[in-house]
Write a structure and sequence with these properties.
By secondary structure, this protein is mainly beta. 4% of the residues lie in helices and 47% in strands. It is built from 11 helices and 113 strands. The longest helix is centred in the first third of the chain and has 7 residues, at 364-370. One of its GO terms (biological process) is anatomical structure morphogenesis.
């Protein structure tokens, strides 16, 4: 609800202040004498008026709901009420948008209504309080453009509605006293039900309280009783009588800020019942119950419960004074000055109450919550309600009195107690009160058959047997149902003198009594009436399967009767209802006229067509169309099969919104409908259809506001269309004729992805699927607005071009601080928000999302984020700067004051600023060593003076440095020239000073070796000047440096032949000439051997030709051609010959002879070492063990094939982990061939046939199996460097290289070196 006005006699809602003009005045020509409490007649516990103006009692949870569809252009209401409560709902007429609410607010009347022009408020005069427990008359009239509120025919408030009222439509019905949990937008906040009395409630000439019976589907009466109950007038000192299993009262919460005190007196005979219950926050509670006749208190806090029981019996029908005290440390329970105490566990937070205080019992909702607490009086599994029965008075909470006038809700209680002794059987039920309860709706729990409310010795007097009746039927109540176990002659009475008086009438039916008028008025019958069949039960047709009524038995004889014939003992008679299948009931809640727009379709909903069948599942109900349906006018359509007319549909389809009426032609038509449950059919209804012309206009075009880089939904309140001034269901499409300039209109697809669109529908808007996305990622210097233009298309009708404005809140950057960073003594300096701080305007951006993008990193140092070096396009945030995570570290200390800079831009929300420059001021340190080490460049075999620009160490205070050689050059030496003042020898110096470098006396000399670089390692340290004493604070400085020397090679070596062998070829055949046949090497380190150029002279017995084109002879080729297989020799002539080759590296030349030998095709065994295998293990067979050569023209090693002709006996040959009988030379070279020993035998052999083209060679491969005692790895005994003089041979002996077995083992054959690295020094 909107804000409630205070401090004025009338007010107008600020939503529609201009639309309502109100004047208030007092009627002076008419007066009304207010009725006082004393002037009202009182009859027992109920106040009664003539039948024409029925009074009704509302108990705080009561209400009357009238399911009628009101559709009118005027409104009138009259009602009378009396109450002592300052808040409560009196009346509600509820529609979708239209509504009228009358409620009590702080003792004043408050009217809120929406009559077509927005919410409007009328408030009675502030000095007129209507919570004074006297009768007040309220009249409300809404006619045309005038609203009038009249109170007691004396005070009047009027107002004017600008534009007048439209037709009011209250589709949700009319409510009196409460709203039954109706969920509509205008009912928000706490709106309590009315508590008090009402009469003469007339709405639009419809009397609402003429009957207090419920009618399914039309009227619901909940907890409302006839007459004005005395409990509303009870004084503070009067006792409260709880008389049923459903009794309870709720009071305002028992406020406990850590502690509380509750005091009262009670009188009961109940052995088990709940006395009070108070909830707290987070599941905490305080409860008091009777268990086995004694009191038990509970305190539940933080999932632990403390229990405390008294030792004093209270279920003895005597008055007892109770005191319950609750503190942070203790729980005290006192009964008649006898107390017990329990300690409570310490908790961090005090107990804080929440919700009302329940006394005597619980309502249904609270009962389900309390069941989980395992209280004995509220069992978890029982469905029966066990409330306190007895009397309670003098209730005080924290010394504050609580009486019935303070109650929020009450149920089944009365004022005053008449309990005098145990013989009085606990309590005297107010008969008039219970008789009138026959008008009340609720269905209480039914007691078990044949059991009495109060059991005593008289229980054998009556034997009750259940009455069975069909649903909606009737049955006689006969003597077999109520058997009287007594002898009447002994008592001297007749059957007509035994009187059964009805205490509570049946809930779901009534008793029809064919008795005397006096008996019928008193709701009584005799035993003789029962025997003569004059008592009949008539069921009301509801779906309840049980009913009951209560009665007492007495005698009208003047003789003294036993206690059980004095009418004090109530009995319960149970009625069993046998269900029957009722036909469905079909109605049109909104009337029989369906209005829709021409050529459109309208959804049919349960609000238009309502089917009710209490005994049939709604999924089993269906509806069918009867008669000749006029398909030219329109047809019914199921959205699951659009475009096709249907003659029937299920109730499930109707509820799911799948059924539409589609209009085609005629303006007027009708639909005959009938429902079925599969067995029975309902009544037939006629739904008239009227199509009306229409036009539309854009009702809302407010535009949206969005922050740059963000998105905003376009909702119905921003953009919507009305047809004929009302909301509609026609398909509405928006066609964008001009796209927005700085963003996109996007729609959310079913996958959840947003995509740009040029058209969209109202349906997509209503479902939150249309948005404006700001995509402009540049800075906007001016406040430019955006917009898009569109047209509306509804059923082919297209509007003119309209504009939808978009206000963009542009992002702007402000650099608050950019202060240079000073680097003085420390090597690393933190860059914090005192140096660099940026903020945004227009759009709020968190520090974590405000980024700096590094455009140009510093040149003289490093910018770091933590320990990570930031490079170009690296990102860091303002939050990183605030947390001191960004720092600058110089590469070296400068010799003089200098500056370093880096440039950056600010980035947020994909928007990037211009570039900014940040400055770092670098200060030199006087004692910092300034090193110069740029390396040297020397020609091969040359020498180079080392100058100050290449190697030097110095400080700002010009200290002298001495250099000590820690590692000499490997390919040259340092020497001093003109060294008369130096400290070392002329050659191979180990020390020198700055003076030697400045005097240009230090020189590096290369040894002319074929190397590309050299280096030496120095330690530079300060020395004291001669005759100068070092101060105590003078620091000794030292540093290590490595000097790199680049050697510029020169071509001074001629090519050397490294492969010199006879070239074999098949007679009159051809073969590739490769590096395996002919190869040269150029010792110059920087020369690529592949670039050696070969030139040949005439060949006596053949030609060299190009492999790719054998017709083209080759006279020159490079060594790369030999490696790539591009040179082919073709034989022609003699079997043996030689020819001359000239080889050059471009500077030096050499020549040699290539001998060619010609023969028939052959295969020769180049290598067959056999195998050594450990027992039961694998040994790899490689080209080092087995290989062949051939003079035939083969291009790949795959052309050399090996086939096993005799397998091994004690093992298998595997190729690529699989057993195979063939493999190639390529497999051997790749290590794909393995011999696997099977663990038997000490020797094995397998025979092979080698095939190259059509040439074959037989080969045997021997396998030596090593015994377990021999299975020790071979050890390298000697492996020393071999020194060889260039161009000369040297013998490799045991002193240089030797392998052998582990000491103490023997081998059957000597070890063989199959692969090793030999290091030769020339």
């Amino acid at each position: 609800m909107g804000p409630r006005p205070q401090g004025s006699s009338w007010s107008v809602s600020h939503f529609q202040l201009s639309s309502l003009k109100i004047s208030c005045h007092r009627r002076t020509n008419k007066t009304k004498q207010k009725e006082s409490k004393a002037s009202l007649p009182r009859v027992s516990s109920v106040r009664r008026h003539p039948a024409r103006n029925l009074e009704a009692s509302f108990y705080g949870e009561s209400y009357v709901e009238l399911n009628v569809i009101e559709f009118s252009s005027e409104l009138s209401l009259r009602l009378k009420f009396q109450t002592s409560k300052p808040q409560g709902l009196l009346f509600l007429a509820a529609g979708e948008n239209d509504y009228c609410i009358i409620e009590l607010l702080s003792g004043n009347l408050w009217v809120r209504a929406n009559l077509g022009a927005g919410e409007q408020v009328l408030l009675s005069e502030q000095r007129l309080h209507v919570d004074d427990l006297t009768w007040h008359l309220v009249e409300l009239y809404c006619v045309k453009d005038t609203v009038s509120l009249v109170v007691d025919k004396h005070y009047e408030t009027t107002g004017q509605v600008t534009g007048g009222m439209h037709n009011l439509h209250f589709r949700h019905g009319v409510y009196v006293g409460g709203h039954n949990g109706l969920d509509v937008p205008y009912l928000v906040g706490e709106l309590p039900n009315f508590r008090g009395c009402m009469e003469d409630v007339v709405f639009n000439q419809r009397e609402i309280l003429t009957s207090l019976r419920s009618y399914p589907g039309f009227k619901k009466v909940y907890e409302v009783s006839l007459g004005c109950s005395d409990e509303f007038f009870a004084g503070e000192g009067e006792a409260i009588n709880f008389f049923s299993s459903r009794s309870y009262i709720t009071f305002p919460q028992w406020k406990m800020q850590g502690e509380g005190l509750l005091e009262f007196a009670l009188q009961t005979g109940t052995q088990q019942a709940l006395i009070l219950f108070q909830s707290g926050r987070e599941g905490e509670f305080v409860a008091l119950e009777i268990v086995k006749g004694v009191l038990r208190a509970h305190v539940g806090r933080s999932k632990s419960t403390t229990r405390l029981s008294s030792f004093r019996l209270v279920s003895d029908d005597k008055w007892h004074v109770i005191q319950l005290r609750f503190t942070e440390r203790h729980l005290d329970l006192m009964v008649d000055e006898q107390g017990v105490r329990a300690s409570l566990p310490l908790k961090g937070k005090p107990f804080v109450s929440e919700g009302p205080l329940f006394v005597g019992g619980l309502d249904n909702r609270k009962r389900e919550e309390v069941k989980k607490l395992e209280l004995a009086s509220v069992p978890r599994k029982s469905t029966r309600r066990i409330s306190f029965k007895g009397c309670l008075k003098g209730l005080e909470a924290n010394s504050e009195k609580r009486a019935l006038k303070d109650a929020l809700v009450s149920k089944d209680i009365s004022v005053g107690c008449k309990m005098k002794s145990r013989d009085a059987e606990n309590l005297s039920i107010t008969t008039t009160e219970n008789v009138l309860r026959s008008e009340v709706l609720p269905s209480p729990a039914i007691p078990e058959a044949g059991k009495l409310f109060l059991q005593d010795a008289s229980s054998s007097f009556l034997v009750l047997n259940d009455l069975e009746v069909q649903e909606g039927g009737q049955a006689l109540l006969e003597q077999r149902h109520v058997k009287v176990g007594m002898k009447f002659k002994d008592l001297g009475i007749h059957h007509s003198q035994i009187l059964f008086k009805i205490k509570e009438m049946p809930i779901h039916g009534f008793l029809r009594l064919a008795v005397s008028p006096e008996q019928e008025t008193g709701k009584a019958f005799t035993l003789l009436d029962l025997e003569q069949g004059k008592v009949r039960y008539v069921h009301d047709g509801s779906e309840e399967t049980r009913d009951y009524f209560t009665f007492s038995v007495s005698s009208n004889s003047k003789e003294e009767m036993p206690l059980y014939l004095q009418g004090h003992v109530p009995y319960v008679f149970n009625i069993i209802v046998i269900p029957v299948n009722d036909p469905p009931y079909l109605k049109l809640p909104e009337g029989n006229l369906l209005l829709l727009f021409e050529k459109s379709k309208k959804q049919l909903t349960p609000d238009i067509i309502h089917v009710s069948d209490p005994d049939t599942d709604s999924l089993s109900l269906s509806l069918s169309v009867l008669g000749n349906f006029d398909s030219d006018a329109g047809f019914l359509e199921n959205t699951n099969d659009p475009g096709r007319a249907v003659n029937g549909f299920t109730l499930g389809d109707l509820k799911d919104g799948n059924i539409f009426y589609v209009h085609r032609g005629h303006q007027n038509s009708r639909i005959l409908l009938r429902a079925s449950d599969g067995e029975l059919v309902s009544n037939t209804v006629v739904l008239r259809v009227m199509a009306v012309p229409w036009d539309f206009e854009v009702a809302n075009r407010t535009g949206v506001v969005v922050r740059q880089g963000d998105t905003v939904l376009i909702t119905q309140s921003n953009l919507s269309v009305e047809v004929n001034g009302e909301h509609h269901e026609m398909e509405t499409h928006y066609i964008i004729t001009r796209l927005p300039q700085f963003g996109q209109i996007q729609r959310q697809e079913s996958s959840g992805e947003w995509k740009q669109v040029s058209t969209f529908s109202q349906h997509s808007i209503d479902r939150g699927q249309i948005r404006y996305c700001s995509t402009f990622k540049e800075l906007q210097l001016e406040n430019v607005t955006d917009h898009f233009k569109f047209k509306v298309n509804i059923e082919g009708k297209i509007s003119g071009e309209l504009m939808f404005p978009v206000t963009v809140q542009w992002l702007k950057f402000t650099l608050l601080k950019i202060v240079p960073l000073e680097i003085d003594k420390r090597n690393r300096q933190v860059l914090n928000c005192d140096h660099l701080q940026a903020v945004t305007e227009g759009v709020e951006v968190a520090e974590e999302e405000l980024h700096f993008k590094l455009q140009t990193p510093p040149k003289k140092g490093k910018l770091l984020l933590g320990n990570k070096v930031l490079k170009t396009n690296s990102i860091f945030s303002q939050h990183d700067i605030t947390d001191s995570k960004v720092s600058y570290e110089p590469q070296e200390r400068p010799r003089e004051d200098t500056q370093d800079t880096f440039t950056f831009s600010i980035v947020a929300k994909h928007i990037e600023s211009k570039d900014y420059t940040f400055t770092i001021n670098l200060k030199p340190a006087k004692t910092h060593i300034i090193l110069t080490n740029r390396g040297l460049f020397v020609k091969e075999g040359g020498e180079k003076l080392i100058t100050k620009s290449e190697l030097f160490a110095q400080t700002l205070d010009n200290q002298t440095f001495q250099y000590k050689l820690m590692r000499s050059p490997q390919h040259g030496k340092l020497k001093l020239v003109n060294f008369s003042h130096s400290l070392g020898s002329h050659d191979n110096v180990t020390t020198f000073t700055n003076e030697d470098i400045v005097g240009e006396r230090l020189m590096y000399v290369h040894d002319d070796s074929e190397t590309q670089w050299d280096e030496f390692l120095l330690v530079a340290s300060t020395t004291s000047q001669e005759g100068v004493v070092r101060g105590l604070d003078t620091e000794h400085l030292s540093t290590e440096l490595k000097v790199i020397i680049s050697i510029g090679p020169k071509n001074d070596e001629r090519p050397v032949r490294v492969v010199d062998k006879v070239f074999h070829v098949v007679r009159n055949g051809q073969r590739l000439l490769t590096l395996a046949d002919l190869c040269y090497h150029d010792p110059d380190s920087d020369f690529d051997d592949g670039q050696l150029l070969y030139t040949r002279r005439g060949i006596p017995n053949g030609d060299l030709v190009r492999t790719s084109d054998p017709t083209q002879k080759l006279y020159q080729f490079r060594q790369d051609d030999l490696q790539a297989g591009r040179v082919l020799f073709r034989h022609r002539g003699a079997d043996s010959a030689r020819f001359v080759l000239f080889v050059t590296d471009g500077v030096h030349y050499t020549s040699s002879l290539l001998e060619v030998s010609v023969s028939d095709p052959y295969i020769q065994l180049a290598n067959n070492t056999g195998l050594l295998v450990m027992r039961g293990e694998d040994s790899r067979l490689t080209a080092a063990n087995l290989s062949v050569t051939t003079n035939q023209d083969i291009r790949t090693n795959r052309e050399i094939e090996f086939r096993i002709v005799q397998p091994a006996k004690h093992g298998r040959v595997l190729v690529n982990s699989s057993v195979s009988h063939t493999f190639t030379q390529h497999d051997l070279m790749q290590g794909h061939v393995v011999y696997r020993h099977d663990g038997s035998g000490n020797f094995d052999v397998f025979n092979l046939t080698v095939k190259v083209k059509e040439t074959y060679l037989a080969v045997s491969v021997y396998v030596q199996v090593s015994l377990e005692s021999h299975q020790q790895p071979t050890q390298v005994l000697h492996s020393k460097t071999l020194v060889v003089e260039e161009g000369k041979p040297v013998k490799l002996g045991r002193g240089k290289l030797q392998v052998g077995s582990h000491p103490g083992t023997t081998r059957s054959r000597p070890p063989r070196i199959t692969g090793a690295n030999l290091f030769l020094c020339f």
